[in-house]
Each structure stands twice: as structure tokens, then as C-alpha cells.
Amino acid sequence: MSEIKLPVKFAQPSESTPAKTIIVHVSKMESFICSLNPAASLYEDVTDEEDIRKCFNELGEYLKTKDIKLITTEEALLLKGKEEELMKLAKDSLNYERETKIEEEKEGDNKRKDSLKEYEMYSSDEYKENVLKKFTKKNIMNVILTRPTIKLKHIDTDTYIESTSITFNPVGNIVFCRDQQITTKKGVVIGSSRTSQRRYEHIIMKQVFKNIGADIIGELGEEGYLEGGDFFVAREDLSMLGVGLRTDMNGAKYLMKNDLLGTRYMGICLDENDLDQQRMHLDTYFNILNNDNALVIDFDEVKKKENKKNNIDRKVYLYDNNKDVKEIESDNKNMDNKIGEYKLIKIYDSFYKFLDDMKFNYIKISHDEQVNYMINFLNIGNNTILSVNKDAETKFKDYGITVKYFNFRPILNMYGGMHCMTQVARI
User: Greater confidence, 151 or 115?
Assistant: First the structure.
């Protein structure tokens, strides 16, 4: 385990500011359990935890050459002095479920009553805690990540208790540790997921950030939905948020109402007609090479390729927190004219028009290039990106971009690329 110098500052002035610290999650037993049925686990195909670990080892070795600190969620959770917090996560993750209801078994002789006491004791929270205290840290992590439920039945012989089944509710998508929170210019905001199987990830990642001393400046809770793949600090004065299949307007409003962004402008990129899993987050159809250049999917080509009937381009609602600007009327009942100190100042009927107005040069990416994760790269600053698409270097050669390619098929099998699997601090 590498040394973590605390506290770790966690914010980002812009997507192109050089990376200082990157958090990743290296999969353990949870990815094996999820691979038993990849489709039901939001995976593309079967993957292997040892192969995943090799991918992260390769990434870590490269980041050392760039003087970028890599922290794993396991390192953060196992920090010395955080044992109590770790045990709480483990107790919340391990569930003993009684099939025999003690209150319904009051009748009987003394032997039966004694056996019920034994059953009650071996299925209690106190017994669970005593068991967990004897585990190695490695196995404590497995408990947290696989979230087992043991169904327990009373019997009249032997230990008076038996297990009838052991089931798991693994957090198999936490490897994509971009999504559980966003990092703004001001700090970390814990989000909220629409997908029930991903909700416990927010609790785990919140503890990761608390352990390393990062500034957690907000937590959405049940007020709406907010996922990190939908958020960019595009430039020092501009935040962008995708709203559609995963993040909703309540998430956007929470950020503006509570002044959590730190940027003058906020661009809401609204997906109303596409709502496709392939383009579920902003970082699946848009990304930033540097302060001047960006990638965006060719919406017209995708529409033709997928035989879409409706226009799948995104409208963009631009908000400004400058007190001297005048707000305009919204054309959408879900888009308020004013949110906190932010006022709606312009509506774009095309994502491309918005990028033009923001003075971004952009490269249009085809459907096939997008499916092969060309857009889902990580910008580490200094005109350098990390990509899982082997054709990216050729694509970007005329833009002064250095591309480091990683053959991360084991992680691609889990339906995500380099941007999805990293959470970055740039201060």
C-alpha cells in the first residue's frame, strides 16, 4: 500500500488543468460475482479480477512517470485510524436474515427455549460484529463489496441454527468511480443514482473522500439524481452538466441553488429525444482535449445509423451568475429562469451552436468510434490524454495532443472507459 499524505485536496479548476491525484477502484470478488450474469450486472461481457488488477498496475506505473498520485479506494478505506468507519461499512454490508421468527416460537419445553436463545444469539448483530472483527482487512473489503445476506433457520439439534442460503448484492460497477460524485472547482459533491444496484456505491465513495480529508461540499441525497459522468468543468468559467437518462434537473438545480460550482457559467445539456444507453452520460458523447479543442459525437450520423426518427441533438440552456445580466424566459417548464444566483441567459437548439459560441474547436466522432470508447478518454493536462481506443493517436495528431494508449479490454467488458474509471483532483 502506498503512502497517502493527508489531507488530500480535491477540486478541479478545469478539465484541462494538470491532474494531481486520481482515485480508482481496483475490482475484487464483486466483479467475479457480477460476471456470473454480465447483462444483469450492466456488464458487456465476463471479466476477470486479476486481469483488471493488471490494468490498474499498468496505469499506476505510467502515472508515476507524470508525478500524478494514484489512490485506490481500498487504500483509502484501510487507512490507519479509520478502523471504526471500516467496521461500520462492513456491518451495514453483511445482513443476517432470520427465517424463523423468535417471537412466534415462544411455546415449548425448556430445551426448545434454550435452543431458541442460541439461535437468537448466533443471528444477532453482536455475533455478526464479533465475526467481522476476526476477519483480515482483505476479507472485510470483500464483505463491503459483495454485500452478503445469510438466511438463517432455527433447528432443534447441533448448534440450533443453519444457513438456508447465502446471496450477494455486489457493488460491481464501483470500478467506474467517476459516477458516484462530481468534483467541482470548490470540492466534492456526493451524487445520487437512478439505478438501485449502484446506490450503495455513494456511501462507500463518500467514506473514501472523508478518509482522505477531501472537502465534501454537498450531498444530493434523495432530492434528485446526479452522476459524475454527466459533469465537466469545461473551462475555469464554465461548468457543463448532462441532463437526461441518468442526471435530472433536480440535480442541476441543487448545484446552482447551493452555489457548489465555482464557475460563472453553467451549461445544461438536455437530452430529450435520444435517451440511449450508449449515450447515457455527457462523457459518452462529449469530451475535452484542451482549452480550445473538444470531441463530440456526430448526432446526424448516429441518427441515420440507428434509424432514429427524432432529432437527437442536445439543447443547451446557459445560466450565468453575474448579477448584472438579465434573465430570459425559458421555453421549458422544467428549466427555471433563475436558480439561486444563476440566471438563464441563452438557449441553444443545437449542442454544436453552443460549442461554437463557447469558442471550442471540435472534432465530430462517428457512431462506431464512439462505441469503441474514442470519446471516453482522460485528459491529464499538458495536452496529454489517456485512451482505451488504439486509433485515438491518429485521430488527434493534428491537434498537438499526446495520446497514451492502454489495452484495457477487461475493464471495457464492464461497459466503461478511462474517463469513467477515474475521479480526478487538479489542485
Answer: 151
Q: What is the radius of gyration, based on Cα positions, of the chain?
A: 24
Phi-psi region of 310 (alpha: psi -120 to 50; beta: other; left: phi over 0): beta
In this structure, what C-alpha cell is assigned to residue 229?
Answer: 459522468
Q: Do residues 377 and 419 lie in contact, with contact meaning Cβ atoms separated by under 8 Å?
A: yes
The answer on pLDDT for 269 being more than 80 is: yes
How far apart are the C-alpha atoms of 64 and 45, rounded to whole Å? 31
Query: In the predicted model, is pLDDT for residue 211 greater than 80?
Result: yes
How many angstroms separate the CA atoms of 367 and 298, rounded? 7
Averaged pLDDT of the chain:
95
What does the pLDDT read at residue 1?
A: 44
Rounded to whole angstroms, the Cα distance separating 352 from 332 reads 20
- Written as nine digits, the cell of 60 is 499506476
Query: Residue 42, SS3?
Result: coil
385 burial level (CB within 10 Å; 0-12, 13-18, 19+):
buried
Q: 378, 422 in Cβ contact below 8 A?
A: yes
The closest of 226, 215, 213, 234 to 14, measured between CA atoms, is 234
pLDDT tens sequence across 5-63: 999 999 999 999 999 999 999 999 999 999 999 999 989 999 999 999 999 999 999 99
How would DSSP label each residue in 260-329?
Answer: -S-SSEEEEEE-SS---GGG-SGGGTEEESSSSEEEEE-HHHHHHHTT-SS--PPEEEEEE--TTSPP--
Q: List beta partners, residue 320.
A: 265, 343
